[in-house]
Amino acid sequence: MYKLIDGKQISTAIKDELKEEIKRDGIKATLAVIQVGNDPASSVYVGNKKKACEYIGIGSRSYELGEDTTEAELLDLIDRLNADDEITGILTQLPVPKHIDEKKIINRISPSKDVDGFHPENVGNLCIGQSGFVSCTPAGIMELLKRSGIDIEGKRCVVIGRSNIVGKPMALLLLAANGTVTVCHSRTKDLKQICKEADILVAAVGRPKMITSEYIKEGAVVIDVGIHRMDNGKLCGDVDFDDVKDHTSYITPVPGGVGPMTIAMLMVNCVFAARQKQK
Ligand code: NAD
Questions:
Q1: Centroid of ligand 1 to alpha carbon of 29 (angstroms)
Q2: 267 assigned to some structural domain
Q3: What's the pLDDT score for residue 279?
Q4: Is 137 near ligand 1, meaning CB less than 6 Å away?
Q5: What is the set of active-site residues?
Q6: C-alpha separations of 34 from 61, 75, 94 in Å
Q7: Are 150 and 250 in contact, with CB atoms under 8 Å apart?
Q8: Model-wide pTM > 0.90
Q9: Between the N and C ends of the chain, which has fewer C-beta atoms within 10 Å?
């Protein structure tokens, strides 16, 4: 019988711990959230981030910019926020409109306020095992594994997906925890066979229900990063949950698995940023 990894419950526990910590230690933090354009999905994410700040007891400032905002205007705002002493964390909700170069935006945010963990300096720190900000979704997955008592050391870990924000940092974190890690992607040959060797399988493919029981080793831990809206309005992941669940030891549901952890880990990064500043 498989165990469900409850991301909702674990993320609430993390936020409650942060709330206590902030109150106890008098931590002062303010997150600046920039949104360019009014993509409805982005607006929901931004709203949830602001709510989470309020819940744990830190400030948030939002900057809602028009779709026609130029790259120079956005860079200028980031410069001002970098220099603003009250702001301890900055994030730009991605994706940005096509006329803006995402890389330039990521690189302009001060590494010490980069609570998304996307700046090359923070990615480099992760790569060589130095302290810094870690991308929230993979950091959240590590917390899910840890708090569910799942040991990584010596395990065969397979990550499907090699994006900068999920797949690559996920592989680095599993490696740092002494897993034996394989990264698969769209050009991987024999994907099913490789996945079938995994003790821990992380699916960050962006393809609804692609991972069926044919990809799963009996008793594997399966982490589903994907989020897709189906025609019937319901959400599903990259994993075909109903087909896969009985072959696993632990599995994350969608919704209620990885999703809620991303915002909880953003809050962890906001508190880390404020503590670093206090030092
Ligand atoms: P992405 O599109 O940037 O990357 C997808 C990766 O999957 C690529 O590296 C690609 O090589 C690989 N891939 C695509 N098709 C493949 C195939 N047929 N076989 C093997 N590999 C294949 O996506 P991303 O930003 O990494 O996100 C992945 C999924 O996770 C999406 O569904 C996204 O919505 C979701 N996501 C969820 C959260 C969360 O908070 N839960 C956060 C970020 C992303």
A1: 31
A2: no
A3: 85
A4: yes
A5: 49, 93, 116
A6: 9, 11, 9
A7: yes
A8: yes
A9: C
